[in-house]
Design brief:
single chain; mainly alpha
């Protein structure tokens, strides 16, 4: 069997085994909570009885997956450089509020308005990621520590801005605060037409977020940059062996800065699907935790855009089940338990399969070497 096919088969088998074990662990937690595992897992696949309910469930799952996919891409760029960018959470929060506020201060034709918001978000996220990058290359500060601290700063700074300088008008009786509402020219068109072409009813609410197209294009662009360009090779080489990269003419410090800024720029886009496609502002109840979930999605997807997309859809599928789980009298914390178990077991499975593939390759190389070694004949 070819080495590539063998490794792919091991990866698939390991992922399936990890998911089965995660289901078993979750079943124990469900029983401990006094609920029925059968009812819980039936709730995961309960999309409703009507066409509209099914469409709404699928739309909710995909909409949840879009920001998780972008978050996974942001984390994966850092991982390829052997950098642990935990600061994605803070980077997307500060970028989202700045982009939402800037976009609410002017009106322009829709393409220009949306493009400006995207550029502002990417620029703010990249600049915020530049801080830990500079600290690392100039003072040797570990990016894990610096990004964790910067997360707290960004989260609290965003909370201050949304209640202070960036706050918009609040309706009477409204408890939450938010930035001014974006003009309609900044509302990203939805993709509800896909359901209509299939003869299905359009989903309720904001519908299927049009930013899905941007996320797909972003995934393709990240794949091309990391896998098919000299920059991607330099990033990987600098992450694997900075000394060897330096000897070959690559400046590892510049690559650290470039990789962190690129990771932060991608992270800055995480909040835009919700801002442009649904809420049209940044509020004090803006969705938190997407950056931290992005770490799990990147690990589960093995830092590859296609794998990250599958992992994001899996997490979106699990998150969508929160409503049906409540109707089945199952605590929603089961979702967090399952997500954590899947990520942990997949990481373990990846390590085991990687070692198995390496040992197979070593044995193959040893056999090949043995065949090519001349045999000495005694005189």
């Amino acid at each position: 069997m070819p080495a590539g096919l063998y490794r792919a088969l091991l990866t698939v088998v390991g992922a399936v085994a990890a998911i089965v074990l995660a289901v078993a662990i979750s079943s124990v937690a469900i029983i401990a909570a006094g609920a029925s595992p059968e009812a819980a897992f039936a709730a995961f696949f309960n999309f409703g009885e009507t066409e509209r309910a099914v469409v709404n469930g699928i739309t909710t799952m995909i909409n949840r997956s879009v920001p998780l996919f972008i978050a996974g891409l942001a984390v994966a760029v850092g991982f390829r450089m052997n950098l642990f960018n935990i600061g994605v959470e803070g980077q997307y929060r500060i970028a989202a509020i700045c982009a939402a506020f800037v976009g609410s201060q002017f009106a322009a034709p829709a393409p220009i308005q949306i493009l400006v918001i995207i550029v502002v978000a990417a620029a703010v996220g990249g600049l915020y990621a530049l801080i830990p990058a500079v600290m690392k290359v100039t003072r040797g500060v570990n990016e894990v520590i610096s990004t964790i601290m910067l997360n707290y700063i960004a989260i609290n700074l965003a909370a201050f801005l949304v209640r202070g300088p960036f706050t918009g008008e609040r309706a009477k009786g409204q408890l939450t605060t938010s930035t001014p509402t974006l003009p309609e020219s900044a509302w990203f068109p939805n993709l509800n037409g896909i359901f209509e072409l299939l003869g299905l009813p359009a989903p309720r609410g904001g519908g299927l977020w049009g930013f899905l197209i941007v996320a797909i294009l972003l995934g393709v662009a990240v794949w091309v940059v990391l896998e098919r360009t000299g920059f991607g090779f330099d990033v990987k080489a600098s992450g694997l062996n900075p000394s060897a990269a330096l000897a070959s003419g690559v400046n590892p410090k510049k690559m650290v800065i470039a990789a962190m800024v690129l990771s932060g720029a991608i992270a800055g886009l995480i909040g835009l699907p919700e801002i442009l496609g649904d809420k049209h502002n940044f509020g004090s109840n803006f969705t938190p935790g997407l950056g931290f979930l992005g770490i799990a999605v990147a690990l589960l997807g093995r830092n590859r855009p296609v794998g990250i997309a599958v992992a994001a859809l899996l997490f979106g599928f699990l998150d969508r089940a929160q409503g049906p789980l409540q109707f089945a009298d199952v605590p929603p914390s089961v979702i967090a338990i399952m997500q954590g178990a899947i990520v942990l077991l997949v990481v373990v499975a990846n390590e085991i399969t990687s070692r198995m593939a390496l040992r197979r390759e070593e044995r193959r190389a040893a056999r090949q070497l043995g065949r090519n070694t001349p045999v000495e004949v005694a005189a």
